[in-house]
């Protein structure tokens, strides 16, 4: 009986943590000033938001319902694969459209950033 | 012949595992269906992914995943603190250029994803020749420190894994 109570506390704790981080993530979207800053809050604050719900779901199903599913692990795997890629697309689109090129630092090589400059061609390279 | 049939063995194994985890039930039929997927998907996507990446230190990879998971939790708390308790006027965002020593596209992809998921940084763009990566920092007073951190913490491990 005590065990059940403990598990319920754990599940509730995870849910509250995820709720708080989900809220902070959405609040950041409203509060921060420009697109690049706003990009930070959904990519990070919401990872723990979703993660908390998934951990709560796993603990609940393993400890109380007694069956184990991999689905939560898969959801977090897919999230880790897709969140950085969509953030990268948004950043690139923003940089292309904003026209604030002079704010960007210089690259460390003779080629510019990929939205401004073509990649080196094979014909550019010195013949051996 | 084997290379034609299975251009990416690790991808094939991963597909079978993901399929079994999706149906959440191991049986001969599911295993067979997973095996068919593991043969068909790499064959169809093979032309877009011609080189087979080398993965040399699997244990470093496990260490890397644990380090990144820990950093994600820390990143969440740091970013939440910045959002909640810093006034907008005090948030100093910076662009940071990180020169790359990694050359394989897979390693750079993993690094870019890691940068986006971890403390206060989002990776935005590569240079045209892939020799450095543009990182946006939500709040920092020390851009060089951020760059050195990324290089020492993530790139060093990725270099061990992929080279």
UniProtKB/TrEMBL annotation, chain A:
The chain crosses the membrane at residues 6-30, 42-64, 70-91. Keywords: Membrane, Transmembrane, Transmembrane helix. InterPro entries: PhaG_MnhG_YufB. GO terms for molecular function: sodium:proton antiporter activity. Residues 115-128 have a biased composition (Basic and acidic residues). It comes from the Bacteria. Residues 109-128 are annotated as: Disordered. PANTHER family: ANTIPORTER SUBUNIT MNHG2-RELATED (PTHR34703:SF1). This is Na+/H+ antiporter subunit G.
From TrEMBL, chain B:
It is a multi-pass membrane protein. Keywords: Cell membrane, Membrane, Transmembrane, Transmembrane helix. Pfam families: MNHE. InterPro entries: Cation_antiport_E. NCBIfam families: PRK08965.1-2. Belongs to the CPA3 antiporters (TC 2.A.63) subunit E family. This is Na+/H+ antiporter subunit E.
């Amino acid at each position: 009986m005590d065990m059940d109570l403990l598990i319920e506390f754990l599940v509730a704790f995870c849910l509250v943590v995820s709720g708080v981080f989900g809220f902070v993530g959405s609040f950041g979207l409203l509060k921060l000033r420009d697109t690049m800053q706003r990009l930070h809050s959904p990519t990070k604050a919401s990872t723990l938001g979703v993660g908390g719900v998934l951990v709560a779901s796993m603990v609940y199903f393993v400890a109380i319902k007694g069956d184990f599913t991999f689905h939560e692990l898969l959801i977090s795997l897919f999230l880790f694969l897709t969140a950085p890629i969509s953030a990268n697309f948004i950043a690139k689109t923003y940089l292309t459209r904003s026209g604030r090129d002079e704010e960007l630092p210089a690259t460390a090589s003779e080629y510019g950033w990929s939205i401004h400059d073509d990649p080196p061609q094979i014909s550019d390279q010195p013949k051996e | 012949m084997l290379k034609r049939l299975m251009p990416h063995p690790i991808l094939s194994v991963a597909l079978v595992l993901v399929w079994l985890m999706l149906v959440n039930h191991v049986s001969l039929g599911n295993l067979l269906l997973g095996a068919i997927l593991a043969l068909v998907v790499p064959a169809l996507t093979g032309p877009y992914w011609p080189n087979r990446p080398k993965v040399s230190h699997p244990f470093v990879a496990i260490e890397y995943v644990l380090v990144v998971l820990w950093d994600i939790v820390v990143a969440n708390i740091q970013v939440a603190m910045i959002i909640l308790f810093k006034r907008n006027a005090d948030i100093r965002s910076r662009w940071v250029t990180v020169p790359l020593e990694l050359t394989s596209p897979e390693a750079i992809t993993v690094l870019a994803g890691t940068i986006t998921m971890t403390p206060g940084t989002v990776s935005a763009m590569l240079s045209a020749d892939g020799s450095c990566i543009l990182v946006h920092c939500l709040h920092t007073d020390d851009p060089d420190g951020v760059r050195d951190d990324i290089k020492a913490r993530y790139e060093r491990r990725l270099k061990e894994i992929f080279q």
